[in-house]
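sry for the spam today, last one i promise. struct tokens for design, 293 residues
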């Protein structure tokens, strides 16, 4: 089975938990995810299945959009609501203007220290393993980009936000640092990913929907349509002869695609068989072969 399935991840599950669940439901071992979500977080988790797991390399820098809330009054060791308080608990009520002014300082390219409970490695060891053992975790700042950061609601000790960020940005760290700068402690209370690259909540299915689906479900809209994948790459449909060569990893002449450096190659309307690189003129060589027959 080859395809892309967008799951609306429920709270309380790791991304790997979702992958294991889908492996069992589809009886397909080759399942991977694009962009990890913390157990606290919900929302868009695209899964690549079968030979389409080879597409993961094209999503390493995928942009992400989130909605969530920040709670003020105390910080936690994980920087989110699942952790233990790491500062005294206080009854504070930041104003919307205070938080908006602070949020503006995080827009653009910034230096961010990842959370101690994260997969970032220190001398080859994931930081979260060291943090669980209560070892000192010293992570170095990394450059991340917050393209949009809108604070649009304030109720008692919480504010709501919407953010569009580049890959590698931790909203937990943003919440923690805002609390530090305001001198009142804060942590990420809720987080929902509403989009990752071309995938959105409108495309997402719940695990319950997957459990009750009749597979294969080619016409039921369960899987993300392959023509919508990687929209920056033009699509070209190969002839039967060209498709056979591409499946064998051989270069072929394809319809001229302007100056496109990479194209999606289809056989028919729905079968994505390769991502191909331009060699010269109309000659393309398959970079990633996604179908062998």
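last one done:
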């Amino acid at each position: 089975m080859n395809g892309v399935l967008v799951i609306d991840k429920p709270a309380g599950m790791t991304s790997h938990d979702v992958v294991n669940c889908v492996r069992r439901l589809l009886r397909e071992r080759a399942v991977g995810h694009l962009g990890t979500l913390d157990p606290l977080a919900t929302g868009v988790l695209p899964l690549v299945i079968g030979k389409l797991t080879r597409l993961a390399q094209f999503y390493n820098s995928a942009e992400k959009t989130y909605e969530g809330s920040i709670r003020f009054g105390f910080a936690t060791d994980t920087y989110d609501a699942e952790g233990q308080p790491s500062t005294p608990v206080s009854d504070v009520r930041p104003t919307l203007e205070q938080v908006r002014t602070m949020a503006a300082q995080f827009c653009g390219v910034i230096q961010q220290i990842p959370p101690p409970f994260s997969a970032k490695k220190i001398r080859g060891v994931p930081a979260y393993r060291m943090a669980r053992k209560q070892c000192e975790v010293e992570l170095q700042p990394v450059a991340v980009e917050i393209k949009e950061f809108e604070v649009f609601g304030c109720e008692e000790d919480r504010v709501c936000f919407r953010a569009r960020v580049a890959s590698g940005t931790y909203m937990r760290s943003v919440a923690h640092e805002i609390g530090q700068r305001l001198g009142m402690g804060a942590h990420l209370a809720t987080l929902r990913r509403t989009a990752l690259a071309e995938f959105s909540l409108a495309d997402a299915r719940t695990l319950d929907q997957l459990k009750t689906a009749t597979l294969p479900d080619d016409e039921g809209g369960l899987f993300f349509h392959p023509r919508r994948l990687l929209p920056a790459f033009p699509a070209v449909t190969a002839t039967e002869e060209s498709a056979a060569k591409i499946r064998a990893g051989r270069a072929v002449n394809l319809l001229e695609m302007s100056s496109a450096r990479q194209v999606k190659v289809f056989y028919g309307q729905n079968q994505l068989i390769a991502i191909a690189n331009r060699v010269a003129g109309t000659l393309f060589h398959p970079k990633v072969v996604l179908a062998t027959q």
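The mean pLDDT is 91. ok im logging off now
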